[in-house]
Structures are given as C-alpha cells and as structure tokens.
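Researcher: Here's the sequence for the chain we discussed earlier.
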Amino acid sequence: MHPDGDHPRTADGHYLIVSGRRWRTTDPAIPEPLRQELVHELMAARRLVRSDPQAGRRRVQDAKVALGERGDPWWEPTPEGSRVRLAAAMRALLRHRRPEATICPSDAARVAGGDSWRGLLGVAREVAGELSRAGVLSVRQHGVEVDAAAAVGPVRLARGPQW
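Model: Thanks. This is the structure I predict for it:
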C-alpha cells in the first residue's frame, strides 16, 4: 500500500483526492525510515490535540511541514521554505525519539532535500545553530555542547534547555 493510501491522485502526483477534496501528498523523496518516524510523530501529535490542543497543534504543524504536506510545495522548494522545513524536521524527529536521543543534521537534510540532501547540509547546520541560540536545540560534538558555526566535523542535535 502506498504511504498516502489508495486514494486517487492528480496527474502530476502532487495531490490526493479524498471525498472530492485535494490534499497535498507526502514528499515521496523522504527516505522510508524517516518518513515512518514523521508519520508516527504526526499520529502522536493528533492524539495530543485532544488533551493539549495548543501543544498538539504545534506538533501536528511540524510533522506536516516536515512531511511536505504543508508549507512550500515539496516539488518547488524555496530557500526560506527549505529552512522552515529543516527546522520542522529537526523538532519533529527529536520529539519522536527518546528525550535523551540525538539526531544528525543530515537526517533533517534527507527529509527536506530528497536526492539532493547533501546540498542542504550547510543550511541544516545553520538552522541548527539558530535553534540552538534560541535554546530549542543543543548542538553537540563528542557529547559536549558546541557552537554550530565554529564546529568542525560531525555534530549531533539534542533537545535544548528551552525545549
């Protein structure tokens, strides 16, 4: 079964038709393990809306933007839209994983960049740096918090003090 179900699609494949309404499809370039994590996060966020609507809606928004279902169309990315999608992917992936878990900036780049994800790595590190300065994320190297702009080599992203 296709990730978006068996609903008919528009000829360009960008939308599904459900009960006569068009809905944007999930970006097909997201690697399956990451897509599955984001779908699980979306389902958890939708359940949370019942008990904590404000937090749940923020989480739904992040998951849907990361999946390409909201925000700039995944088939026509813009520089600003890519930054928004990278940030949403970072937050959604970190929410889905254990609180002490980390992600690599390349995970978010793979979500937002499709086959050309390597070209987004620099932008992903910039976005991680912005989120780190806001306290949302912590950028780490060998388990120690570092400045994303000054770090050389691989870094990991974790939940920050303002999570």
